[in-house]
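Marked as duplicate of an earlier ticket. Keeping the data here for the record.
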Amino acid sequence: QVQLVESGGGSVQPGGSLRLSCAASGRIRKIFTMGWHRQAPGKQRELVADIADSGDTSYANSVKGRFTISRDNAKNTVYLQMNSLNPDDTAVYYCSAEGVQLRNSMQMRDAWGRGIQVTVSS
């Protein structure tokens, strides 16, 4: 009953910016943590950033100072503002939701988006 849909990806030149959005839909009461992972071809999926319902954030060292994660709990949406992009940021970015509480249910579940491409090249 939970679906995550990413948007805002695309191609940019080095030094450019993109803002990713991910909207979670379903009968959602609460999401403990939302975040972004990325995966380049032949590489393992890695955490980029996440944000708890409290607003506490965590970032990969490679994106600190360049990326900013935020969320709108009323819309069940998480954002990733990406600045000063470089070719190493090229990957498929996946939205995640951890500890999703559905209405009228005590069960917790996790969800993943299908991913969105971000390409940084000249």
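See parent ticket for discussion. The radius of gyration is 14 Å.
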